[in-house]
Amino acid sequence: MARTPTSPPPTLAAAKAPRKAGRPTSAKPRAPKAKAVPTPVDTPAVDPVPAPPPESPSPLALPDIAADQRQMLEALSLNLARAAMTAQSAIAEAALSQADRPAALSPDPFNVGPAMNSVMTSLAARPDKLFAAQADLFNRYMDLWASTTRRAAGEASPEPSKDKRFKDPAWSENPMFDMMRQSYLVTSDWMNGLVSSVEDVDPIVKRRAEFFTKLLTDAFSPSNFLASNPAALKAMAETNGESLVKGMQNFAADLERGMGKLKISQADYGKFVVGENVATAPGQVVWRDELFELIQFDAATDRQRAIPLLIFPPWINKFYIMDLQPENSMIRWLSAQGFTVFVCSWVNPDVDKAGFGFDDYLEKGIYRAVEKALEQSGSKTLNTVGYCIGGTLMGAALAHMAAKGDTRVGSTTFFAAQHDFAEAGDLLLFTDEHWLSQVEDQMDAAGGVLPGAAMAETFNALRANDLIWSFFVSNYLMGKSPAAFDLLFWNADQTRMPKRLHMDYLRSMYGQNLLSKGEFTIGGLKVDLSKVTIPLYFQASREDHIAPMNSVYRSARAFSNADVTLTLAGSGHIAGVINPPSAKKYQHWTNAALPGSLAEWQAGALEHPGSWWEHWATWLHDKSGDWVAARNPKTGPLKPIEPAPGSYVKVKS
């Protein structure tokens, strides 16, 4: 490879300022200067002497643009070499760091092989179907060839794709990339459709095959490879390869952060500090024990409702999803509506909690938090919120309270919570006994807890294009730095889970659906959701991939003797819940009835613009008693321990 000269040759010393990288122009030779013509004088007649041929320009006298191009090529070559060396070094270090670790527990931890074998066997038994599928694929490619030929003859470019992977205009404007994109979409759509068309296979087996076929086709998108991604190639050309160097540096940093395992960064994690620029709602930790911290937040009004509100977030995440920034903080908003807000901030469990199960989280969690919130507020009853898996626990606790005649909880709200898991979405695919045994072995290897990153990887796989491949392309192929995004910072701030609790949850809920059947035992009792009679408010989100709306609807109907109000919000598992009215985003639907199916409910529902919070607040005010003087967390019966957000939420996994 040519070396960049340490000093320019004389004829290039006055070179012009470099042009913008990636936009070279054609070199134009200068016109030769006219030679001076001598004045005619009388001279003897002689044969004319032929003029010497024009001298060829020296290579050092080429126009300045040639030097620019050479320097650009040399810079590009050097940067490509730097990128390759950075990647190779990172991979080598990762391999060394993993060398003393045990091999993967299974080459097929999700048991995809048998599922694909069942699908292929079914297709092989229907040769007519296979023939029709092959003919369909041939016709699709003939249509693609015809459209490509028309493009070559001058037909206008198609509209830019709505698929976020192909949003760059080059995917439609450049015929080569357009054909590459369309060829991929034809093939992937055909493959996924073929697997979905199988009819005589167990539905769960078929769904597993569909899910992993989609994962595979998503992974092979041309947008995920440098050589076939026009946006990445453009960035490389315009930066003379610096984008690829930065991308490989990002790659190396993520491998190092994952201790030899690729842990793709989704946000600039250094921009956020819990308690400083996220989780900043003022309040006090008024109780702390081995399982949770109880936080009481400051009043934002002179008067508050007499009956306080106690929120149980999921123990798989940290509570500050409800307090990211002041403008979208649900906790601040509830305080501004006049509610006394308590939050149970779960401990990030270590190996000493490996034996904690549902009984511990009921007795030492739900019951103790209720007791302490009532003691601090001076109220005889309170209202509760159960968010996601915290809602599953809260639902079981309500059934346990009903069996014991405990009336301390006057009403409960559920955010994206499931109690009937018959239609719990794609997470059901990860809960067959083969996979659960792999999870159990993983937890044993970690000392009895599930590492936080393990569950994060599962959730990311449910939305691979958004949560894996988009960052792979942006961080590594484009060389961009992750954005400072508070939501994704929170999403990566995962917690560990005790083995006993997590395995019981996966087997009893996802595996056997015991809670909705009245067969789940907690606190020494077999609990029945139909025994719950207090008012309940269910929130579901239309695009939720973790707690699908149909699953939440079935859960609402499982409380068959309760007064249930259900609201359906726009967007997904997080944005559907955390949607302050001031944002004026999305929409929500309400229907006072609760018919036999979600489709019937939707048919009779009314659509409303914006957030569902105000509808819920109206319902909650009605359940929260009279107005009383605002409560000060510092002057209650429980002595303040430290300011919110406390210590447990700051413990990293």
Structural description of this entry:
- The longest helix has 35 residues, at 64-98.
- The chain contains 20 helices and 17 strands.
- Helix 8 packs across helix 14 and helix 12 (433-445) runs antiparallel to helix 16.
- Strand 1 (283-288) and strand 2 (292-297) form a beta hairpin.
- The chain is of the alpha/beta class.
- It is 42% helix and 11% strand.
- The two termini are 46 Å apart.
- It has a domain at 283-427 and 515-650: Rossmann fold.
- The protein is globular, with a radius of gyration of 33 Å.
- One of its GO terms (molecular function) is acyltransferase activity.
- Pfam families: PhaC_N.
- This is Poly(R)-hydroxyalkanoic acid synthase, class I.
- Residues 1-62, 151-170 are annotated as: Disordered.
- Residues 162-334 form the Poly-beta-hydroxybutyrate polymerase N-terminal domain.
How would you briefly describe this protein structure?
The protein is of the alpha/beta class. It has helices at 64-98, 112-124, 127-152, 170-173, 175-196, 203-219, 230-238, 242-257, 330-336, 358-377, 389-404, 433-445, 452-462, 464-477, 486-492, 499-511, 514-517, 549-558, 598-603, 613-622, and strands spanning 283-288, 292-297, 303-305, 309-312, 341-346, 382-387, 409-415, 449-450, 497-498, 520-522, 525-527, 536-541, 564-569, 587-591, 606-609, 627-629, 642-643. Helix 1 (64-98) runs parallel beside helix 8 (242-257), helix 3 runs antiparallel to helix 5 (175-196) and helix 5 runs antiparallel to helix 6 (203-219).
